[in-house]
Structures are given as C-alpha cells and as structure tokens.
Specification:
Layout lengths: L8 H12 L27 E2 L2 H4 L3 H16 L5 E8 L2 E12 L4 E2 L6 E2 L4 H14 L20 E7 L4 E6 L6 H5 L15 H6 L13 H9 L16 H13 L3 H10 L23 E4 L2 E4 L2 H7 L23 E2 L1 H12 L3 E2 L2 E2 L3 H7 L12 E3 L4 E3 L14 E5 L3 E6 L4 E6 L9 H11 L3
Helix pairs in contact: 3-13, 4-8
Length: 448
C-alpha cells in the first residue's frame, strides 16, 4: 500500500481512492446529428464523432449513464459532470450535465474548461519522456546531476515542536529519475503532509496553484530544502515529482516549462483549450469549483485554500505561466482535448500523423513497474495506476488498463486491449460520490 501516514485526515479518503483505484465521470447532448463537438473534431483522423453503434456501444445502455449522472447532481453530490467515451478512435458518447456555476444557473457544457489537477501528471510525464527519448537523461540518472539542489537530500525523522525545526538525517541514496516518474523518490506534497506539516507549509512551497511572484526554479529549490519522507526508492509516497520534472524539462531544454508544453504537446495535438493559463476571452468558460459543507455544495473559495493550501491561489490560471507552471496539477483542459491526448497514447504515441513518442516508450508508461502491495491487482506505472493482475481484480478492465485522477473529481482510464477509454470531469472536493466508479462500470457494460 502507498504511504498514507503522511496525509491529514481531510484528504486521506480522497487521495487513497486517487492512488489505488485512481477514481473514475447536461443537458448539452453530443450524439449523431445533435450538437457538434469542438471545432476540429470532425476532421481529426484519429478521433471522430460517431454514432454509439458505429463506435461499438449499445445506445440503450449508454442512456443508463445519463440517468445515473443526473441522479448524482440531483442529490447534491456533484455540481455537474462532463463525460466522454471513445472506442477504436470513435467518440460514442460526449455529454455534459448540471452546472458550471450553481448560483447563476450557468449550465456545464461539453467544452467547459476544467481544472484537471493531478491528471496533469501524465501530460508532464509524456513531455519528460520526449527528452528521455533524446537521451538527455536515462532512468538511472541522478536528479542531482540535473538539479544540483537535490544532490544531498535529507530524510525526515521528526518535527521538533519546541524549536519548530525538522530533525533529519542524510539520505544514504541519491534520487534517480525513474523515482520521479513512479513517486518513489520520497518527495512529498506539503499540502497532504501530517508529519512535520508546520515545517513543510512554512517553507512556502507552491503545491499546485501559483499565486505569488515566484519562479519555478525558486519553488523547486524550496522543495529541495525540506526533507524527503524516506530513502529514495524505498517505497511509494505521493508527491511533487512531476513538478520537479517540469523544472528538469526547463533546465534540459532551455525553454520555460509552460512554453515547452505549448509548443511540443498542446500545439501538435491540437489541444487548443489546454494550458497552464486561460486567455481572458475564455474566462467565462471556466467551471466553478465546489466543496461540501454541512452536506451542501458551496464554493471552493479563498478561505478553503487558506485552510488547506495557504500557498496556493484559486485563480492561478489568470497568470502568465512562463514564470512558473506546475506539471503536477496546474493544467486546465476540456474532456475533448484530454481525449485527444489519450488517443495519442492509445495510438502508440501518434495522432493525426504527428508522432510525439515512440511506440516502445509509450509501453513503459503502463508497464506496472512498481507494485507497493503484492496482493493487489494494481501496480504503479509512470504517473498512472495499472491493472497488473486481472486474476485479483474484480472489475471489467483488461490487463494493462491504466488510470488516473485529479483532486477536483476528474478521472480517466485507458484500456489498450479494448482500444477504449473514458474521461469524466466534475469540479468538487471533497466528494464521496460513487459517480466515477459507476460511470466506468456502466461504460464497460455498454460495449458491444
């Protein structure tokens, strides 16, 4: 099992679901001759609008999903949801339900912009793997050889309450690049820490949503100044590993991380609504995010950030991201754009004739290279959770299916054997709805 002792109680349930099963997705309907998808969908070679039948789904079974999601909204579990299902490169289901903003009764649309939080991690992983393919590092390269601030890491032993200082010891091992991809480096998330929490928060590390005047370089140096949770490679601890990868990309490539992502991923994949910032003319498309208070949905506002993430700001996406962009949680996207990204992976690294990764590199992502619990059906791939043993898995996914999720109740899965994937996006935390798991089960049951 992952090291969850580091988490405070308010996030433990959410993050446990995110790490182990990685979770899983209004009126605007997108079927057949109904509403069109985003512009550019129809001429995409590898992601085409289709009827459910031609995409390989039974329409009456897909209709069950509508009722299930709407029920979750009616019960106040989520403000809304956008869901997309793709089989064999064909979009058989793409619908939005509920509200982008509850107070103004603004409906959620299929092209609403959503904070995908930790679903950013896989995108950053792909970007880093592009440099891996250029031999700018290998999986056993010491991180300290690229970022000198990590040359001599320390290990957390205790927190001295009286002196308000960490008690540490020098690490016996060096952090290797492969450990960033698999969350085994010992690097933590300050926001999720319980042991030594005051010290980690006091370092003013930006976990996810930059709100102050700081560079990515300085932020990662602050992260390097605090102790690791454990010896590098010792076990799995969910942390800011992909944020470090973003800085690695900056150093090795020379461009600001956000610029690299725009030019090397978002533009080639035609993810025109995806980035670490939102232009002013699209602000009205950003869905509001909610939290649950007294069993009611209320805005996930500044006080919530102050309580849980004092160094993060809710509208980071209005900033210029070239100074600081965080690859672990900072991307805003749409279901369609993210579907294009996943289709590229399903196509072994290529979309619309543009190759972003080699076929064998894509295979590494879902190989299941780290298995924290030998008795579990899950293993850790590169920033994803992988179904590594279907004989122990009571679910419909095929062997090698990989999953991911985000803090604000967004999730995806990719089933290479079935050439099938789904994406579900809502905007709520905490959320204890069963919508994501039910969406996944009902999607699989709708396959012909």
């Amino acid at each position: 099992m992952p090291d969850l002792d580091w988490l405070d109680g308010s996030v433990k349930l959410v993050l446990n679901s995110l790490l182990i099963s990685m979770l899983f997705f209004k009126k605007t309907t997108l079927l057949l001759a109904g509403h069109l998808l985003l512009s550019g969908t129809i001429d995409a070679k590898d992601l085409k609008q289709s009827s459910p039948a031609k995409a390989g789904f039974e329409n009456d079974r897909l209709n069950r999903i509508d009722h299930m999601i709407q029920g979750c909204i009616d019960r106040g579990e989520v403000p809304g949801a956008i869901a997309i299902l793709v089989k064999d490169g064909k979009i058989g289901y793409h619908k939005a339900f509920g509200w982008a903003d509850i107070a103004s009764k603004k409906p959620l649309e299929t092209d609403s912009l959503v904070r995908i939080a930790s679903m950013s991690k896989l995108v950053t992983t792909v970007a880093a793997l592009q440099l891996y393919e250029k031999s700018q590092f290998n999986m056993y390269t010491e991180l300290g050889s690229i970022l000198p601030e990590f040359k001599n890491p320390t290990i957390f032993k205790a927190w001295n309450e009286e002196k308000q200082t960490f008690v540490t010891q020098p690490a016996q091992k060096k952090i290797q690049m492969n450990q960033l991809f698999t969350h085994t480096s010992g690097i933590i998330y300050p926001i999720f820490s319980s042991k030594g929490r005051a010290g980690y928060l006091g370092a003013r590390i930006i976990d996810a949503f930059p709100g102050e005047d700081i560079t990515l370089e300085e932020n990662i140096k602050r992260l390097a100044s605090v102790p690791l949770a454990h010896e590098p490679g010792e076990k799995f601890t969910y942390g800011m590993n992909m944020d470090v990868l973003g800085r690695v990309i900056e150093v090795l490539d020379g461009r600001p991380f956000a610029q690299y992502m725009r030019e090397e991923l978002f533009k080639p994949l035609r993810m025109k609504d995806t980035g670490f910032a939102v232009p002013k003319n699209k602000w009205n498309r950003v869905a509001s995010v909610y939290t649950t208070k007294n069993r009611k949905l209320e805005p996930f506002d500044e006080p919530v950030f102050d309580e849980r993430a004092p160094n993060n700001k809710p509208e980071w996406w209005k900033r210029n991201p070239d100074k600081i962009a965080l690859g672990g949680a900072g991307i805003i996207s749409t279901t369609y754009d993210y579907a294009r990204f996943l289709q590229m992976l399903l196509n072994n690294g290529e979309l619309d004739g543009k190759r972003l990764l080699g076929r064998k590199t894509v295979e590494i992502i879902s190989r299941g290279v780290h298995q924290p619990d030998p008795d579990s059906s899950y293993a850790g791939g590169l920033s994803v959770s992988v179904i590594a043993n279907t004989t122990k898995h009571l679910g419909p996914e095929s062997q090698g299916t990989f999953n991911g999720g985000g803090y604000f109740y967004t999730s995806f899965w990719v089933d290479p054997k079935e050439k099938f994937f789904g994406v579900l996006m809502s905007q709520v935390n905490p959320g204890d709805s069963q919508m994501a798991g039910n969406f996944k089960l009902m999607s699989y049951s709708a396959l012909k």
